Amino acid sequence: MGLGNxxxxxxxxxxxxxxxxxxxxxxxxxxxxxSSNDAALQDYLVTPSGTLQHYDPSTGEIRIVNTEMPKDxxxxxxxxxxxxYYGQK
Length: 89
Fold this sequence. Notes:
89 residues; alpha+beta; 3 helices; 17% strand; globular
């Protein structure tokens, strides 16, 4: 549980260097971002906070597609404003 439930796995390891170029270099195939980069396939994530997110390995861009997915009200660790985490606010 925690922040990792609301972001693509592999991002927490960036420790503050969460930008497009850093994301494109993640190669851990056991993580969402690393698997996407390795396969050169776009990836999607639906979170307990109710966001649908999209990752494009060719650009390293993560964008929030929708913020109105059903939320998991029982998740005490949910993030209400995921845009801040991705530096989009």
